[in-house]
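Quiz preparation item.
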């Protein structure tokens, strides 16, 4: 599998497809240790060498599982990213409850927002302990939407110091919006941005702000949420499809189905086209897809290997279903 170096940090190379480990934290439902280990094994065999996790995912469960799965593999052959901004504080009085933030785990800890310098250092130290790894290659600020001042003026400088000391390889932010990511690119010293759901086959808002800013400043972009929370993950979106973590509005489902119909005329499925679309933009260095099982990994890799006709993008644009075709916002290739 091809890998791309971050323009500003050529020593950090991300495989074209990244392994999203949120499901390893029991996102929505339980994932067994065996399922997760088999998924990592399958990804490794397919050439995936970029693995993304976060303390938020299962209150540290994802980090622990990923560390176990990778610990015996050659350390210089893979890249791990995790995130800062949510500290995990023990909450033994709630251990009999289940986590209320979407993960099927006991509520043994509570998440506390903290983008201070001390919070960043404590978070990274805890992530190293949970993973058991000797270093974290990429560190993202995690969802700093309501914390711009502290994130930009305390967390980023702390991460810059760690990067300059060689403690971490690259730094950035990961969010479900593109406007603030673009602001980080323009106003701070970052290397890579993770954009979830805002540059997909369904919507291309990041093409107007984040992607041009990143390209002009040599900042890599990792695309996550390529299926818009599941809406684009099936060949034909069902009536109960999820979009942005909620039930998709009927109009959005209909738009996705129209995109699927055009894709079918070019011999590709909706999820195959969704993966191919985001990879075209020159600022995009990797696509992270959340996977739970070996079968999901195999299917994702198969979808990535499909050659999608370039004519598809022009056809979608002509049908009013694509705001900007790959690589050049608003202009056909």
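Solution:
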């Amino acid at each position: 599998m091809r890998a791309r170096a971050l323009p500003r940090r050529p020593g950090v190379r991300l495989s074209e497809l990244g392994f999203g480990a949120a499901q390893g934290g029991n996102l929505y439902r339980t994932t067994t240790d065996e399922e997760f280990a088999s998924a990592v094994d399958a990804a490794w065999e397919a050439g995936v060498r970029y693995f993304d996790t976060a303390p938020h995912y299962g209150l540290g469960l994802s980090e622990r599982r990923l560390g176990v799965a990778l610990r015996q593999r050659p350390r210089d052959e893979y890249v791990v990213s995790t995130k800062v901004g949510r500290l995990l504080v023990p909450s033994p009085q709630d251990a009999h409850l289940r986590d209320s933030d979407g993960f099927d785990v006991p509520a043994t800890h509570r998440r506390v927002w903290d983008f201070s310098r001390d919070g960043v250092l404590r978070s990274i130290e805890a992530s190293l302990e949970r993973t058991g790894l000797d270093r974290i290659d990429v560190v993202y600020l995690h969802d700093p939407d309501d914390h711009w001042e502290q994130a930009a003026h305390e967390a980023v400088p702390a991460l810059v110091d760690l990067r300059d000391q060689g403690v971490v390889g690259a730094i950035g932010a990961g969010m479900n919006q593109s406007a603030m990511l673009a602001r980080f690119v323009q106003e701070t010293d970052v290397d890579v941005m993770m954009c979830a759901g805002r540059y997909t086959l369904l919507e291309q808002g990041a093409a107007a702000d984040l992607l041009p800013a990143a390209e002009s400043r040599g900042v890599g972009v990792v695309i996550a949420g390529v299926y818009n929370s599941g809406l684009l993950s099936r060949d034909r979106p069902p009536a109960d499809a999820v979009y942005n973590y909620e039930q998709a509005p009927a109009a959005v489902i209909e738009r996705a189905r129209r995109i699927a119909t055009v894709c079918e005329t070019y011999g590709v499925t909706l999820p195959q086209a969704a993966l191919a679309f985001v990879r075209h933009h020159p600022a995009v260095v990797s696509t992270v897809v959340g996977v739970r099982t070996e079968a999901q990994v195999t299917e994702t890799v198969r979808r990535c290997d499909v050659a999608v006709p370039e004519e598809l993008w022009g056809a979608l644009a002509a049908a009013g279903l694509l705001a900007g075709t790959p690589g050049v916002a608003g202009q056909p290739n």
